[in-house]
Amino acid sequence: MSVHEPGTPGETATVVAATDVRRTYHLGEPVHALDGVSLSLEEGSFTAVMGPSGSGKSTLMNLFGCLDTPDEGTVEIDGRSVTALSGSDRARLRGTEIGFVFQTFNLMPRLTAAENVTMPMVFHDVVDEDRRARARTLLERVGLGDRLDHAPSELSGGQRQRVAIARALANEPTLLLADEPTGNLDTETGAEIMDLFRELHDDGRTILMVTHERAIAEHADRIVHLVDGTLDEIEEVRGSKAASGRDRSGSEGSE
Ligand SMILES: Nc1ncnc2c1ncn2[C@@H]1O[C@H](COP(=O)(O)OP(=O)(O)OP(=O)(O)O)[C@@H](O)[C@H]1O
């Protein structure tokens, strides 16, 4: 199901949408972290969010990730209004519809790679052996089929992030949210992780990524620029790194 059914054949569906969202924090002087932002994510789109420190990027991610609700405006995920849900229903929606990738990986240190990947599957009715098989498939997908039983401390930074990406995919989420996914990696490893994101994008995943780095943002199809809690510009990334490797109706890469 989608927020808006496509009007014409071939038109892409909006799967996640924030409409005129406002979020004000009241610690002393009110801070308008988001001051009327609307942003829709089409199915299979890859969007980067950039902006100065304090411009509202994390606040927007928290709304899309069902970690917070707006004071005004609405957030809809796969046709469901997040704003109308109770805290526990929102947590369930978060567990089933959102996959999170963090700058600091956030793996459970005492669990193996495979066990980390099976953790989010509690939201689904999957028996143990199927979970293990699914974790294996996901870890193979991110190039770690030979690291299932390694602890995070036995993996490199790039490998840890790959485990985190496999974990984020555990429930076939509607939306993959990545907060500075290359922030703790060297340039080369960061580029490898972005290659993986590009592959996931090619597989049809819907991705929203916050980054400070222009070169990383250019892997997306468009860059959303936030300034002072407002949407300053949506920049289409022409011949983006994400698009360059693919044949997209033959229309890309000829500039
Ligand atoms: N829980 C909170 N309580 C009070 N103020 C907050 C809270 N979270 C964020 N803010 C304020 O809201 C504004 C937006 O913060 P936000 O974290 O969304 O920005 P950001 O663009 O992600 O910044 P950065 O790039 O530094 O992570 C900032 O002025 C921040 O100080």
UniProtKB/TrEMBL annotation:
Cite the Gene3D superfamilies for this sequence. Answer: P-loop containing nucleotide triphosphate hydrolases
SUPFAM superfamilies per the record? P-loop containing nucleoside triphosphate hydrolases
Report the PROSITE patterns cross-referenced here: ABC_TRANSPORTER_1, ABC_TRANSPORTER_2
**What terms describe the molecular function in GO for this protein?**
ATP binding
Name the UniProt key words of this record, in alphabetical order: ATP-binding, Nucleotide-binding, Transport
**Highest taxon of the lineage:** Archaea
InterPro entries documented for this protein:
AAA+_ATPase, ABC_transporter-like_ATP-bd, ABC_transporter-like_CS, ABC_transpr_LolD-like, MacB-like_ATP-bd, P-loop_NTPase
Q: Which residues form the ABC transporter domain?
A: 16-253
Protein name from the UniProt record: ABC transporter ATP-binding protein
Q: What high-level taxonomic lineage is stated for the organism?
A: Archaea, Methanobacteriati, Methanobacteriota, Stenosarchaea group, Halobacteria
